[in-house]
Amino acid sequence: MYSVNVPVPGRVRQLADRLYPELVGFETVREDHSCLLKRLGEADHVAQLQHRAHRALEGAPAVEAEITGIDYFADPPLGSAPVVYLAVESPGLEGIHADLTEAFEVVEGLEGADYIPHVTLARGGDIETARRLADREIEPVRWTVSELEFWDGTYKLPVSRVSLPS
């Protein structure tokens, strides 16, 4: 599965690291952090998929993003529950997501109107722990998203980057 992801600054990774001791009881705890912007699907010809994504992103400007708190999905459409995440507020990212949904098929229940920008921390744990984490106050983290990554989900590596002009 290929996707377009938003790399997050070190301050977001540091926040996730500070929360790690409270996440160890979950089935999986993410060690690499980014914000999934749009799933692109599988491809026989990766270069063609990249080209389509790059064309859909042409002219997209740099946008502001902010981690505003901790939240969780009690019943996610895929995978184990709950999913604890850092909430990302960014009308600009939501706009870029909408542009990408015009070029690529929407995954029902996850994208389009159902899209919620977030950075997953952990999944498959105790709902009470998720609620307790969501009640925590955190210092907001603001940053400018000046590039996006074309991500290869099989190898869990960025394949290329797209700069967003400021």
SSE order and pairing:
Blueprint: E1 2-7, H1 10-23, E2 28-29, E3 34-41, H2 46-57, E4 63-73, E5 83-89, H3 91-103, E6 118-123, H4 127-134, E7 141-145, E8 147-152, E9 157-163
Antiparallel strand pairs: 1-3, 1-8, 2-6, 4-5, 4-7, 5-6, 8-9
Helix pairs in contact: 2-3
- Tell me, what's the shape? globular
Number of helices: 4
**Strand percentage:** 25-35%
Instruction: Please give the number of β-strands.
Output: 9
Can you list the strand order of the major beta sheet?
2-6-5-4-7
State the distance separating the first and last CA atoms: 29 Å
Helix content: 25-40%
What profile does the largest beta sheet have?
Answer: 5 strands, antiparallel
Rg, rounded, reads: 16 Å
Average pLDDT for all residues: 95
Category from helices, strands and their pairing:
alpha+beta
Low-confidence stretches: none
Oligomer state of the chains in this structure: single chain
Secondary-structure element string: EHEEHEEHEHEEE
Describe the structure in brief.
Keywords: Ligase. This is 2'-5' RNA ligase family protein. With 166 residues, this protein is of the alpha+beta class.
Keywords:
single chain, 166 residues, alpha+beta, 5-stranded antiparallel β-sheet, 4 helices
Explained architecture:
InterPro entries: Cyclic_Pdiesterase. This is 2'-5' RNA ligase family protein. It comes from Haloarchaeobius amylolyticus. This protein is an alpha+beta fold and 166 residues long. The protein is 28% helix and 35% strand. It has helices spanning 10-23, 46-57, 91-103, 127-134; strands at residues 2-7, 28-29, 34-41, 63-73, 83-89, 118-123, 141-145, 147-152, 157-163. It has a five-stranded antiparallel sheet with strand order 2-6-5-4-7. A hairpin with a 4-residue loop joins β8 (147-152) and β9 (157-163). It is globular. The model has no long low-confidence stretch (mean pLDDT 95).
